[in-house]
Design brief:
Layout (H helix, E strand, L loop, with lengths): L1 E5 L2 E2 L11 E2 H14 L5 H9 L9 E6 L3 H13 L5 E4 L2 H5 L4 H11 L2 H11 L10 H7 L10 H11 L2 H14 L12 H9 L3 E4 L12 H18 L6 E3 L10 H9 L4 E3 L8 H6 L7 E2 L10
Parallel strand pairs: 1-4, 1-9, 2-3, 4-5, 5-6, 7-8
Helix pairs in contact: 5-8, 5-9, 6-8, 11-12
């Protein structure tokens, strides 16, 4: 059984000439490819597998979508409905409570609008070594963005902000970069709460992607508890969750720690997705239920970013 991870599935926007996304037409082609090569796991078979009701691993593909971006409702959801498919949609809930974009998405928009090397060169010039206190930065340097194909400077820009700088400084640094390049962030970015409810009511699984999409391994135990509890509280209030499921922000074993797994178990989260290029096995359900592997869509035919 293969789980596939998607982020942006959309059409081109001229105001974002450097933006990386999966074109809607290629998404449909990839679904055709998956249907021909592997088939899709039914919702009933998935539920039986993750709850332990079945002792066999279903054959086929499970579709997952991260970050609750508006394109998921505008493009992905209608396509899935048309094909009688279902998917798992992971929602970072902070923007619904604050009305602002998450830092991770403001970074995406900057790198979509402005040449990556220019962004990194400017940021590198204003970040000092005392802004990079985290002890695991050497690990992050080797483990992050290794599977992505980015324009020059983009991976370095994203890595410096998402992993290296102190979390308390990140938002202000993004603001400084945006002002320097005279860039204004869009406001209509996420799936509306009523549309999340609609998706849930029509067979889609809704899961937590934390409140603010942090690198969880950079947070204290209490901070991780808050990120997860606040997220599930919000989702419980707007839709009926058939079970609790979670997806690690950024993904990879460097992005979470033993505290994360302990908290997920304490909160009765049934399963969580990591990022790892291999199939899901029966052993994963019993031994690694909070690190289920997912392939990136770009590892398969028609999945290359535009």
């Amino acid at each position: 059984m293969k789980a596939i991870m998607y982020h942006y599935v959309r059409q081109a926007k001229p105001e974002l000439p450097h933006f990386r996304y999966l074109d809607v037409a290629n998404f449909e082609k990839q679904l055709d490819y998956f249907e021909a090569e592997f088939g899709f796991v039914s919702r009933d078979d998935w539920d039986s597998f993750v709850t332990g009701a079945s002792q066999t691993v279903p054959t086929g593909v499970v579709l997952t979508f991260d970050d609750a971006m508006s394109c998921h409702f505008d493009f992905v959801y209608p396509i899935l409905k048309k094909r009688n498919l279902w998917g798992i949609f992971y929602v970072p809930t902070g923007p619904y409570e604050t009305g602002t974009l998450l830092d991770v998405h403001r970074i995406h928009l900057l790198t979509g609008a402005i040449q990556g090397q220019a962004l990194f060169d400017y940021l590198d010039g204003i970040v000092s070594t005392d802004m990079i206190p985290f002890a695991k930065r050497d690990d992050f340097a080797q483990a992050t963005y290794s599977s992505q194909t980015n324009y020059p400077g983009v991976a370095e820009f994203k890595r410096l902000l998402n992993y290296f700088v102190d979390e308390t400084l990140k938002s202000d640094l993004i603001n400084t970069v945006a002002r320097h390049f005279d860039y204004q962030f869009s406001s209509d970015f996420y799936v509306a709460p009523d549309n999340i409810k609609t998706m849930s009511e029509h067979g889609m699984i809704i899961g937590s992607h934390t409140q603010d999409h942090p690198v969880m391994s950079k947070l204290t135990f209490a901070e991780q508890v808050h990120q997860l509890q606040a997220s599930f509280d919000y989702l419980d209030a707007i839709c009926n969750l058939p079970h609790r499921t979670f997806c690690h922000p950024y993904g990879g074993f460097h992005s979470f720690d033993d505290n994360t797994v302990t908290i997920l178990n304490d909160m009765n989260v049934l399963y969580s997705f990591n990022v790892q290029s291999r199939d899901i096995t029966l052993n994963d359900r019993s031994a690694f239920k909070h690190a289920l592997p997912r392939y990136d869509c770009n590892e398969f035919a028609h999945g290359a970013a535009s």
